[in-house]
Write a structure and sequence with these properties.
The structure is a homodimer of 147-residue chains. Chain A has seven helices and three strands; from the N terminus they run H-H-H-E-H-H-E-E-H-H. Helices cover 65% and strands 8% of the residues of chain A. The first copy, chain A, has a three-stranded antiparallel beta sheet with strand order 1-3-2.
DNA sequence: CTGATATCAGTTGTACTGATATAT
DNA sequence: CATATATCAGTACAACTGATATCA
């Protein structure tokens, strides 16, 4: 006989589970960031700059997996707030070099705490091992998101 | 020293991995369904009717995890195509009972093949055990998508 | 009355396309 | 000229909100 935990074909589809789990995750993250007046794009840009140092906007797009059309507004807002600076590249003046400023680093810490809180909410009920396994299984799939 | 496989904080965030893996999955599914002139909503509705039998639209919304606002148009289109019938419930005439018709069952088979092809594309490089593990890890997260 | 159901109109957020200006 | 970068306007889609009509 079928075990009672046997889920329907629809409920076992990896693509469907991914989209619904991502929706849950997105709600947690959005809510956590709203609590500190932030946005996922801000976090992605600040964290990437913190990790890789100053980058051109197009390089930022690549590293963050963001679209060029969305990057402009995000960087402009972060620059207005003093979290990043945006200066023409001396070597290639088509480029604008985006650099993390001290205020941006402090801002990143706040966003990072909110984000980690959201991960824990999302994964409450999952063991640390489960989190590691999930990350390991998702990494090769997520890697194909860029192009 | 850090192992070379050590990914950045950003790249290891479960919420981010989920959203990017879901994006990859969604592109595969959308493309596969486009190939047969279908849509994910059609598949969800037809598969749910096939599995649970005739349902009211609101019950369909619950089972599919779809919004009531989106369900109306989907059911109308499926009814126009003869894949489902929509008749007033004899017991409760506020309800419309949606029933899978033979043409809808044949349509479901086509969509199902496309969807399963998309899963295999998505998971190429993952073992069958990996697929099972992924499903097991995602199921409790995805379950929270409804409300 | 209330509560549930179905429908319709419209909003938001994310991903994305196409066109343009500018500089190499 | 071609190529890369940044910007702007606007599209496509899924998820969602609010209002309304219907009827038990």
């Amino acid at each position: 006989m079928e075990p009672s935990t046997e889920a329907s074909r629809l409920a076992r589809l990896p693509s469907r589970l991914l989209s619904r789990a991502a929706l849950v995750a997105s709600r947690h993250v959005t809510q956590a960031l709203e609590g500190v007046g932030g946005h996922r794009y801000d976090f992605a840009v600040l964290a990437t700059l913190d990790e890789f140092g100053p980058l051109s906007q197009s390089e930022l797009c690549r590293r963050c997996g963001m679209d060029r059309s969305d990057m402009t507004a995000v960087v402009s807002a972060l620059a207005d707030e003093g979290h990043v600076s945006r200066t023409p590249d001396a070597d290639d003046r088509r480029r604008k070099v985006v650099r993390l400023e001290p205020a941006g680093r402090r801002r990143l810490e706040v966003l990072e705490q909110a984000i980690e809180g959201a991960q824990q909410q999302l994964l409450e009920g999952s063991s640390p091992d489960d989190r590691d396994r999930l990350v390991a299984l998702l990494t090769p799939l997520a890697a194909r998101a860029d192009q």
